Amino acid sequence: MKKEIEYEVHYDVVATIEYTGELNSNEHYFKIDRHWVDLMFDDEEDEILAVVFPDGKIEIESYTGGYIRDEEVSAIGKMMEEILANPKINSNA
Q1: Residue 49: count of CB within 10 angstroms of its CB
Q2: Secondary structure (DSSP) of 7-42
Q3: Whose CA is closest to 63, among 45, 43, 78, 84?
Q4: What span, in angstroms and rounded, lies between the C-alpha atoms of 27 and 5?
């Protein structure tokens, strides 16, 4: 599962978010590739962890210690809703 979002910080950014799989039953991993549209040399990559708690709450944080932007948290939250609603997505990651 992949999703591409666009947002603006100081420059336009295109972020491609890819679901890379589930390690434990409550830990889901994502990869984010950021491309700064107006800059040729400042692309970024981060890994994100989404933890699902027994009460259904989802906590999203950077797995590698990088920074995750609000737009990315929102997109990953929506992806997680889809993943949890359709368990077959986990087996195809």
Answers
A1: 17
A2: EESSSEEEEEEEEEEESSTTEEEEEEEEEETT-SS-
A3: 45
A4: 23
Model confidence at 19: pLDDT above 80: yes
Specify the DSSP class assigned to residue 64: S
- Backbone dihedral angles phi then psi of residue 65, each to the nearest 5 degrees: 85, 5
CB count within 10 Å of CB 79 equals 21
How long is the chain? 93
- Average pLDDT rounded to a whole number, residues 45-50: 93
| CA distance linking residue 69 with residue 74, whole number of Å | 9
pLDDT at res. 35: 86
